[in-house]
Design goal:
It is a single chain. The model is unreliable at about 1-10, about 30-40, about 45-50, about 60-70, about 75-80, about 90-215 and about 260-270 (pLDDT under 50). α11 (about 565-575) packs parallel to α14 and α14 packs antiparallel against α15 (about 645-655). The relative contact order is 0.08. The chain is about 30% helix and about 20% strand. By secondary structure, it is of the alpha+beta class.
Length: about 775
Amino acid sequence: MGGCGCRQSPRVAVGAGRARRWPWVQAEPAGRCGCRQSPQVAVGAGRARGSLWVQAEPAGGRGCRQSLWVAVGAGRACGWPWVQAEPVGGRGSRAQAGAGALAAAGAAPLQPQHVRPRRRPQSCSRRGSSCICHQPPKNSPRCSAAAGPPLGSGCCREAWSQLSTLCLSFPICNDSGAGGGNVTLPCVWQRGSSICSSPAAAAGGRSLRLAEGAPAGTAMEFSELIKTATVENVLLSCAGLPAVKGTLCITSHHLLLSSCPGGDGQAGTVELWLLIRNVDAVEKRLANSSGTITLRCKDLKVLQLEIPGMEECLNIASSIEALSSVDSVMMMYPFFYRPQSLKLEEGWHLFPLQQYFQQIASQTSQWRLSDVNRDFTTCPTYPPAVIVPAAVDDDALRKAARFRQGGRFPVLSYYHPKNGTAMLRSSQPLTGPNRKRCREDEMLLGTVLDEGERGFIIDTRSAQAAKQARMTGGGTEPKSSYPQWRRLHRPLERGRPLQESFIKLVDACNDTAINMDRWLNRLESCRWLSHVKAALSTACLAAQCMDREEANVLVHGAEGTDTTLLVTALAQVILDPSCRTLAGFQGLLEREWIEAGHPFHLRCARSAYSHARLKQEAPLFLLFLDCVWQLSRQFPFSLEFGERLLLTLFDNAYASAYGTFLCNNEKERCLCKVKENTHSLWAWLNQPGERKKYLNPLYLPNALVIWPSVEPQSIQLWQGLFFRWIRSSQYLDEAWAEIQRLVEGNEPPVKDSAGNRLSRSLSDPTARPENGR
């Protein structure tokens, strides 16, 4: 890199750092050209035609300060990435060194070597965001007429990914050569991978870009997991839908497949944009020279891929398994997703706790908003601000927190304006075998009740489980210390029993060959409907204590992050008409599930198909959504939102393009800077065009409490979820569309084509690039 004419001397990395936020690599020549004592250091950095460049000069002051160095090769030495560079305009420089300088980006750049360029005339040399589109030489060893050449041949230089915080731009076109806009997608391609005509058609002639702000080193880590990035002639099958044959591509976060139904001769492009995080299990079966991969997804969808070539089949399966198992939160798709119509800050502050507290403060002065947990030291799973009794100071709260498991001291969950009763939630007290006491905890619960009043403690464990917990340091509130509180045990399953029930139910639903008797036996043995009934019964008990008994309620189990939240959230849907509106229900989820510390990352790590050993997975949030669906079925006019919202919430809790359900609590979200670097699901749902899809056309505001029936005959299987991918809902969807039209008085909708329905059925709507929606 010194201007000494050593073109043949590749540089090796001896150090790395950053200049003006850009990564750089300090290099020395490997050859014996006399300039070993002149390592190059970065003195500036910037961008040239969308690519990062680093300006370097020799530390020995050999007079080549004016030389701008460009990368012409890359690799690794002693664990450090190296970049072989040549000066532009200096001695020994290559005149054709490149239109834009590639960066020493902290890792070796990866080259998608078969990127199909836009078809332009031979003389085209348009610059800027598109590549320099001279026709590639047909005799290039790595290039054909349908694929772009490698770096240095004067074409498609943008196809090189600039790792870390840089953009990856793919100018691709459809079969007709039509162009399009930009697609935001984290496409980090393995060296030697390709994207050819069918995926180009899937992208609709747009360019793929890696969103800026991606974690450093992400591209290299993802690329190492992708063994084969593209396979031709893959047959995709899904229950109830015609088979699709096309080209399958793997990116860092997506599976892409594009083709035409029944063959290339038919019109109507079909797209598959499957978020790899959505894959729950990968099953492979080899036969002769081909193989079949079955993808079982977390949203209960089952896809089958028939792949020609045994090696390709094994590589694809291995790549999907590796990418779907990435557990680092900051490596997940929400940190890369950048839709053009949304801003990062949108949606994160739609439902502040301060606003909810103001509604309570306008009716009573018995409660206050405390920031005792502003640094998460009092309780790591609580939000920074909580609503507590006004008569209790922060010092007492800290002492009470030490008496509750995980520091989850009693806080206000819901204030019933009808009669002024309150519902609180917490974790179990740490009484232990010696029956320890905490004066501050007793005072906290005592100030909630006036003299002569009584309250109810609803324990979501059985009496036997609570007794066993006391032997290990937990326990319950003894009557002698809490004389005004009466304890009620209503056991609700959590953890492994609930997850196994979910697995058995899905397995039974997928077995379409069984007879009626066997189906009823399997439905009963899985006990899922029993869990739904128990959750609704317990929520109704809490609501009855407040509304009819006019008594305050404290709900807790063991940790206070699972069944506790299930009961408090369901009770509010039953009691509060505002929680049955679309905005109010979103605020309820934010307040009672997300900010309250339900560990989504742990509970939703696996769905019903995973072969991995169960750890802390449990479908508590799905059970809540199922209970809300039961309410919507029994009270079809009282909820402003419909089934589609519940299905969307289920999908996004397990795999999402948005950061709303990431992490386990607010402390982890602050550490990962989720709100600064990801988009909120609420911002997307509340867009006018999207919001309309989730509304119930039959909704009529109902100010009354809705008391659901919990008789066994009233609890039904949620067919819209568990049979979603088994039976077509086309006619039901058309019926609801007609109801919507009649209510609004609109013109009859245009019928969907079979190709559009197929494409929509195979794809994740929230995971697709915005332009493709």
